[in-house]
Amino acid sequence: MDIYSVIMAGGSGTRFWPASRANRPKQFLKVIGSKTLIEQTLERVKPICKEKNIIIVGNQEHHDILDNLLGERQFVILEEPRGCNTAPCIGLAAIYLRKNGITDSPMVILPADHFIANEAKFREIILLGCRLAQKGHIITIGIIPTRPETGYGYLHKGAVKIEIEGVKVYDIRRFVEKPNQEDAQRYLRSGEYFWNGGIFIFTPEIILTEIEIHLPEVYKGLLEIEKSISESNYADVLHSVYQRFPSISIDYGVMEKTTHSILSIPGDFGWSDVGSWESLYALREKETDSNRNLIQGEKVFLFNTASTFIFNQSNQVVVSLGLKDIVIVNTDDALFVAPLKKSQEIKEVIEALRVKGLNFIL
Predict the structure, then answer these.
(1) Residues with Cβ < 8 Å from 75, sequence gap 6 or more?
(2) 81-110 pLDDT, tens per residue?
């Protein structure tokens, strides 16, 4: 079975500002280990997917980063003129495959900036999903929730549809938007919900049919792009069509509306979307010192400091005295200091800085 992996790498990654910027978002940072998140994602799928079958959908703005990072490899790189969320991104990969005669092989959709602790278990689940996708199902990996998280969408699972190799596969009743705290607690208590980790498996033919039904204007644009692939006017057509595309997710545009069979395989493999400085600190808790401090970078000195995360990308000395539960991110041109539990509010800060005309540090 030939498997095609689509790595969605076009995000802007503002949640890790100031370490991440528009021109170098989270997926290109080394925040866990010695490799960037996108490199870790690629290494994760290579045991089950030929290198030439890996499609990276990135942003034209990051062309040089991708080129330098990936080097002389066989990956296919598709560049979007602008980010339009996941539906156009996935559609672009699907028409590329269809143009190359690939319609019935499973394509695995993966964000480029997530972390997986148990990669062997992850690959087992993906392979099961590919087998079901070949039979015509749309597969989503349901992440087993560990806390009442309000920052994720949820999947409301139904009855067990299939059991394959001892793994129960569930019908999905509905996709649920990010809940408030009360609803998130209720979802966790009920045991009827998964986190939606944004991992999907389907064939190009099926997802393009679904886009044609539920996002006809997007499909019309994809057809224009498909006709121009390998033609001299491809870049012009791509740019023109992307200016017309709405910014819409595959979840909202297709998955919440389709009547097609959607099945969910539970994914208990240590998943994190590494979505904030706080979540990164929690993920790397085993690396903390005796006072539960986590340091990345050099020239950092702590005095009477506890449960604090310091990320120093500069050559400056960083000194912490009497702090607790704080994140400090220091770069050559910006310094961010906040309570760890408030670090998810960075998006509001970014918008405020943009209003003040400080785009040059974003």
Answers:
(1) 42, 51, 52, 54, 55, 56
(2) 999 999 999 999 999 999 999 999 999 999
